[in-house]
Amino acid sequence: MSESATLPGVLDGVRVLEIGHFVAAPFCTRLLADLGAEVVKIEPLRGDPVRQWGAQVDGKSLWWSVHGRNKQSIALDLKSEEGRRIAIDLAQKCDVVVENFRPGQLTKMGLGPDVLREGNRDLIVAHISGYGQTGPGKDRAAFGVIGEAVGGLRYLTDHPPGTSDLPPVRVGISVGDSLAGLYAALGIVSALWRRERRGSDQRYQTVDVALTESVLSLMEGMLPEFGALGRIKQPTGGAIATAAPSNAYPSKQGEFVLIAANSEPLFAALAELMDRRDLIGHERFAGNAERVANAWELDRIITRWSQSLDTQQLLDALESAGIPSSKVYTAEDIATDEQYRARGMVREVADPRFGDVLHPGIVPHFPGAPGSVRNTGPETGADGVRIVRELLGYDAGKIAQLQQSGVLK
């Protein structure tokens, strides 16, 4: 490991308490932990439910290796008074608390923001919920897929109208949760900056992120187009509604290759490559607007050409012509990609449960101090005793009593 990889992360010195479960809050805190923050995750005694998700080896989740990485785990019974007291004591030692229960749930548990700020008035509290902490829909149940539906994404991931009776396609990951986690991390870093530069201000100590709003914020021109023109943005399958040609095209083996030749020079280069110079300046393809209007015809022409070439031949030809293109990557393609490997975006990490495991790298990239995976997802409560002893100053007798009473694992 290089010296730069062992340097403190950009958020070194920031301590975060996670009272989260499933995906959104834990994803947020993983991002912060990857950037050097010290993250203490409170789990129920049985562990975060995500520990049971995805492929398992000997009953252990491979997903958890990444989902819980660079964190410390303490397992508490938050239904008990003593468990809640430990959470409050921990909050007093932290800069940030991140949670993703339904609005008001922490308050019902006796862990509302006012309680968590006992003795720590500068504490930043980040809430991640389905619909936000206010408004008539705040109490509605939601997971990431609901956020994707209400935010408009699921409608747009469908095939073009009239081409399929199948349900709108899911992106394939919990993108609504992850987006909310990203926005929460941005809000937290912004609040920390504000506190550092301008001092404490209660107006900037609460971060409120909704799954629905996180997805909606990515919807580009969807709202202004509807507001001004009454136009409802429609799904376009693999194509881009505003630029052409840009789609996935099959090779001779049936593998799909993305081709994005949606500027005048790139379209001319693609036409030359296909030996279809007649397309250059043709009235149906003369400019982007014309190509978008006739995208189906253009896609059929490109498909006939792409299907005549092996995948690698197709990729080599496109690259030689300087046309943005790529095979649609599988996990195997990602794992062996030289660019990802060179930048540490695919890296082998030692996990005590599995041996060497492939992990995604750390984003954003700081070239002088690229960050490291300090530890993989810990066992449930693995750090609890050390945390209450070193951070809270609990003595051996008190720790033993908490363990015997089932408050601390």
TrEMBL record:
Keywords: Transferase. SUPFAM superfamilies: CoA-transferase family III (CaiB/BaiF) (SSF89796). Pfam families: CoA_transf_3. InterPro entries: CoA-transferase_III_domain, CoA-Trfase_fam_III, CoA-Trfase_III_dom3_sf, CoA-Trfase_III_dom_1_sf. It comes from the Bacteria. GO terms for molecular function: CoA-transferase activity. This is CoA transferase.
